[in-house]
Amino acid sequence: MGSTSARMLTLLGLLQSRPDWSGAELAERLDVTDRTVRNDVARLRELGYPVHAVRGPGGRYRLGAGARLPPLLLDDTEAVAVAVGLRTVTGTAGFEESGQSALTKLEQVMPDRLRRRLAAIRDASTAGPENTGSNVEDPRVDSATLAAVADAVRDHQSLRCLYADEPAEIEPYHLVSWQRRWFLVGRDVATGAWTPYRVDWLRLRTPGGRRFVPAPFPGDLTTFVVQEVARTGWAVHARITVEAPAEEVLARINPAVGTVEPLPDGRSVLVTGGDSVEVVAVWIGMLGLDFHAAEPPELVEHLRVLSVRYARAVDG
C-alpha cells in the first residue's frame, strides 16, 4: 500500500471502525506483513494514540481512549451523512450555534469532491419549517443541562433541581426524545413515583444529589412517556367527553394524542393536551366524533370562537 503516512491513516481508520482487530486481519487489509503492522502501531503510539495490544499468537489490537482526539476518518457516505445530520440539528432549538460550528469544521476538512456533493444536496433541496405541529415555539434545551442529565443517568447520581419552579430531587433513569422535546424518565425521591420530566423545565442545582442503585423500570419507556405526557407534560391539559365508546375513540387517535377512559353509559373520556388551546382544538376536531369540553376554560372559550368562525364560513 502507498506511502507510510497514507498507510498509517488507513490503519487508524480501521482501528476506529470497530472494537478490535487481529494482526493478521490488519495485515491483510493493508496488504503488508505482520511486522509492518507492528511497526505502524508503534509509530501511532509515538504520536500519542493509545493502541492496546495482546502479545502472542492471535493477538489483537484495540484503539483506546486517550488525551488527544484522533483524526476523524470517515468514508464518503459517512462524511455526507454526518454533514446532513449536522445541517438538520442546526434547526433544533438550543443547538443552532454548536451545530453550525461543528458543520463548518467538518466542511473545512472535507475533500473537494465531498464539499461539492454536500453543496449539491444543499442547493437541490429545501427544508420546511421546523415547527409544523404547534403555534408555539419549540422549547430551547440547554446542551449543558442535557449533558449533565446524561452524566447523572450514567453515574446513577440523583439530580437536585427546580422542576417547573418547584424544588425536586430525581433519580434519573433514561432520556427520551419525542415531539422535538427531551424527556427524562426518573423517580421522584420523595414519593418513588416514575415521571417523564421535560428537560427544558429542569433547572439543575449544585452540588448534585446522592448516588443510588437504579430500580428496574416497570414497562416500555417510550409508551410510558407518550401516555404520561398526554396527561401531565403539556402546557394545556383537557378532559373531553366523547359521544362514542372507548374502543371507537382508540381506533381513531394516535397514541401521542392522549389516553381514553371508558364511561359506564357507553361514552368515553379523552385525556389529552398540547402546547396551546389551538393545538388541542385541532386534535379533538380531527376525531370526527361529537364531544363535550368543560375544561380548561381557555379551551372552552376557544371552541366557542371557532364555532362562530366556522358558522360564518358556511353562512356567507
From TrEMBL:
Keywords of this entry: DNA-binding, Transcription, Transcription regulation
Domain of life: Bacteria
InterPro entries on file: CBASS_pafABC_assoc_protein (IPR051534), DeoR_HTH (IPR001034), HTH_11 (IPR013196), Tscrpt_reg_HTH_DeoR_CS (IPR018356), WCX_dom (IPR057727), WH-like_DNA-bd_sf (IPR036388), WH_DNA-bd_sf (IPR036390), WYL_dom (IPR026881)
Domain HTH deoR-type, first and last residues per copy: 4-69
Keyword Transcription regulation annotated: yes
Pfam families recorded: HTH_11, WCX, WYL
Protein name (database record): WYL domain-containing protein
